[in-house]
Design brief:
rod-shaped, six-stranded mixed beta sheet, 30% strand, 26% helix, alpha+beta
Length: 269
């Protein structure tokens, strides 16, 4: 009698290998099941066979050889005895006659910690089953296939960042005529300029925009140095020269005294 089968599978990362692990059951309508697992993960595959008393068979591994069998056991059959040979991967499960019931084969696989992305392991379960404690002399073997795949690593997309405003602010700062501005206001520009240049390597648009704004604000806040007026001393120098060139023998003492007073003030200016 051909058995109706369903496959339940679950993926989980194991810190400790326990006899039972929490699982989320996923039913499959056929005997081929594909499961994805990352390197280092532990996978429980539960094969359910209704209306049986005994099952025996072999696990065959093909593909990239990235998994090992951590545990093999059976559940549900009354007084079930299960055997698994780690060397040749043969197994047998027996209940106690005449009780016939549902049997779960629970296979725990461990994916190698160094399994490469894209690796694939195929496990073929070849078995015969019986509703009695005696297997027929002409057994009919059936197969279930489990395919375990390590997913490819998908690199997250690099965000697109617009640096135009930041680059313009940097160019404006570097083109300043520093002779026109106070040292204090230039120091704030220099601080913002250093941060702006560092932000050129940022992949965060908000960071880039903030650096551009800070630099533009510092440029806008620049303070001009006080304007020193330009003085023409030519007329004053000529007047001093004329006063000093006077022939003092020709003038009264009173008038010369006034010239001398004005000359002294002119030289002080």
């Amino acid at each position: 009698m051909k058995l109706t089968k369903r496959i339940l599978a679950v993926l989980l990362t194991m810190l400790l290998v326990l006899p039972l692990v929490p699982c989320v059951s996923v039913s499959a309508a056929n005997v081929n099941y594909d499961v994805t697992a990352a390197a280092g993960e532990t996978i429980d595959v539960i094969l359910n066979y209704p209306d049986v008393l005994a099952i025996q068979g072999t696990l065959t591994f093909s593909g990239d050889n990235i998994v090992t069998v951590e545990n093999f056991w059976a559940n549900s059959l009354e007084k079930t005895q299960s055997f698994y040979n780690e060397t040749d991967h043969t197994f047998a499960v027996f209940g106690v006659a005449p009780i016939v019931g549902s049997c779960d084969l629970i296979l725990t696989f461990k994916v190698d910690d160094n399994a490469a992305p894209g690796s694939v392991q195929i496990i073929t379960v070849t078995y015969e089953s019986s509703e009695t404690d005696i297997f027929p002399s002409d057994p009919v073997y059936e197969t279930d296939t489990i395919t375990i795949t390590v997913p490819d690593v998908v690199e997250p997309p690099v965000p697109t960042v617009n640096y135009d405003a930041l680059k313009k602010a940097i160019a404006d700062a570097e083109a300043l005529n520093r002779e026109l501005y106070t040292a204090e206001s230039l120091a704030k520009v220099d601080e913002a300029l250093e941060e702006a240049k560092a932000a050129l390597t940022s992949n965060d648009q908000a960071t880039v925009d903030a650096a551009a704004k800070k630099l533009n604000d510092a440029i806008d806040a620049l303070e001009l140095k006080p304007v020193v007026p330009t003085v023409n001393y030519d007329a004053l120098k000529k007047a001093i020269a004329d006063a000093e060139a006077l022939n003092r023998e020709l003038y009264t003492a009173e008038s010369l005294a006034k010239v001398d007073e004005a000359l002294e003030e002119a030289k002080a200016a």
